[in-house]
Design goal:
The protein is of the alpha/beta class. The protein is built from five helices and five strands; from the N terminus they run H-E-E-H-H-E-H-E-E-H.
Length: 151
């Protein structure tokens, strides 16, 4: 599975996620491109501030393979990771990050900060941004529009 195909899976997860959380989907691919784990935002669902889609997917992948080290794995997520998620991605030793929409308020992979490509970072990884960016951004825009209208 390539990055675009994986992003379509992540978008589908986000579209079908619980209605109270921001619709973000994440998938983790192994070295041959197979989906081994998925995650969606579950902060509101579980009252857990760390339950971002990326962290949920990392936890699921670690359980699946029986190791916290996800080197040779790719994380594909619909929204640019925040600082917490970027740190978790680095700590999990993920080799490649792919994301869709930019997060100009809290993004930590180029928008506000660049945690993963900081020259002082101990773990180096490849980052691909803007995959199906328009579709990912539209999903979020639609969600927040509905949230504002409901208030």
């Amino acid at each position: 599975m390539n990055s675009t195909e994986a992003m379509k899976v992540a978008l589908e997860l986000a579209l079908n996620s619980n209605e109270t959380d921001v619709p973000v989907g994440a998938v983790i691919l192994n070295s041959v491109g197979e989906v081994i784990a998925t995650g969606t935002n579950e902060r509101e669902l579980h009252n857990d501030p760390s339950a971002h889609a990326e962290i949920v997917a990392i936890r699921n992948a670690s359980k699946e393979i029986g190791d916290w080290r996800l080197d040779s794995h790719t994380l594909v997520v619909t929204l640019e990771p925040c600082a917490m998620c970027a740190g978790a991605i680095a700590q999990a030793r993920i080799t490649h990050l792919v994301f869709g929409a930019w997060d100009k308020k809290a993004g930590a992979v180029g928008s506000v900060w660049d945690v993963l490509r900081d020259p002082r970072a101990l773990h180096k990884m490849e980052v691909t941004s803007g995959v199906l960016e328009v579709e990912c951004a539209q999903l979020l825009t639609s969600f927040f529009r509905k949230e504002r209208e409901a208030k």
